[in-house]
């Protein structure tokens, strides 16, 4: 299914109108997690509200699953999945590596999506006809790197601390095999796979709204996104994105032990 690029831009603009004025301001931060820290801000809540209003006006028959405001009509064939600010920790720390994620699933398959970083003025989107970039340097079509060997690969994860027990040992082994490992940047790292800057991202424990929007951006740029066991990633879980089938297979073999 094709999604109009201008509708993607409208979503990005509507979200930016709520997020940018609140970025690097000392706004209130609430904690959603008892016994831990899962921050949510007014920017998260208002951006999702604005995105939902656009989708409901344009596609009243579609369902919506959002991180902040729950689900509506998600038994429908077409469901939009929203993370208004992926990387809230980066947002409240003043780092411009958070992004707005909006993806569309049709019968459970992610077919279109966007990642918008309004502070840097960047939009990464997949519309069913390829993966695209708009921002500094001008518009271009996105394409993954052709790296096939772990020893030549750049890999990102949010933090190795997310890997527990035996899985931490397997992650450490994988990190030892790549050329360069970096941490953090949430959705931005996945966008960099599509942009041909990063070769592998491994992130455990993702929710659907963390990854649905990014699956088509990477896949339509030529990459691969699955769970660690090779299954579909639309429902979240332990997720690996890779630039090539060879890298994907090699990284999964290490993670499987």
TrEMBL record:
<keyword id="KW-0368">Histidine biosynthesis</keyword>
<keyword id="KW-0028">Amino-acid biosynthesis</keyword>
<comment type="pathway">
    <text>Amino-acid biosynthesis; L-histidine biosynthesis; L-histidine from 5-phospho-alpha-D-ribose 1-diphosphate: step 8/9.</text>
</comment>
<dbReference type="InterPro" id="IPR020583">
    <property type="entry name" value="Inositol_monoP_metal-BS"/>
</dbReference>
<dbReference type="InterPro" id="IPR011809">
    <property type="entry name" value="His_9_proposed"/>
</dbReference>
<dbReference type="InterPro" id="IPR000760">
    <property type="entry name" value="Inositol_monophosphatase-like"/>
</dbReference>
<keyword id="KW-0479">Metal-binding</keyword>
<dbReference type="Pfam" id="PF00459">
    <property type="entry name" value="Inositol_P"/>
</dbReference>
<protein>
    <recommendedName>
        <fullName>Histidinol-phosphatase</fullName>
        <ecNumber>3.1.3.15</ecNumber>
    </recommendedName>
</protein>
<keyword id="KW-0460">Magnesium</keyword>
<keyword id="KW-0378">Hydrolase</keyword>
<comment type="similarity">
    <text>Belongs to the inositol monophosphatase superfamily.</text>
</comment>
């Amino acid at each position: 299914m094709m999604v109009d690029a201008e509708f993607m831009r409208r979503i990005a603009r509507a979200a930016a109108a709520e997020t940018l004025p609140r970025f690097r301001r000392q706004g209130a931060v609430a904690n959603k997690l008892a016994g831990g820290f899962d921050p949510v801000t007014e920017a998260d809540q208002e951006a999702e509200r604005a995105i939902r209003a656009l989708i409901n006006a344009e596609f009243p028959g579609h369902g919506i699953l959002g991180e902040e405001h729950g689900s509506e009509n998600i038994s429908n064939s077409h469901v939009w999945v929203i993370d208004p600010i992926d990387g809230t920790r980066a947002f409240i720390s003043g780092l411009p590596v958070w992004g707005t994620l909006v993806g569309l699933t049709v019968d459970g398959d992610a077919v279109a999506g966007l990642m918008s970083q309004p502070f840097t003025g960047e939009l990464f989107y997949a519309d069913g006809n390829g993966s695209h970039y708009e921002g500094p340097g001008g518009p271009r079509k996105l394409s993954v790197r052709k790296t096939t060997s772990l020893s030549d690969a750049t890999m990102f994860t949010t933090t190795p601390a997310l890997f527990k027990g035996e899985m931490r040992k397997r992650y450490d082994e994988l990190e030892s095999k790549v050329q360069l490992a970096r941490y953090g940047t949430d959705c931005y790292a996945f966008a960099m796979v599509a942009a041909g800057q990063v070769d592998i991202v491994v992130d455990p424990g993702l929710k659907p709204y963390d990854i649905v929007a990014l699956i088509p951006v990477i896949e339509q740029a030529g990459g691969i996104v699955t769970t660690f066991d090779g299954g579909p990633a639309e429902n979240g879980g332990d997720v690996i994105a890779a630039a090539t089938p060879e890298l994907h297979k090699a990284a999964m073999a290490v993670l499987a032990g």
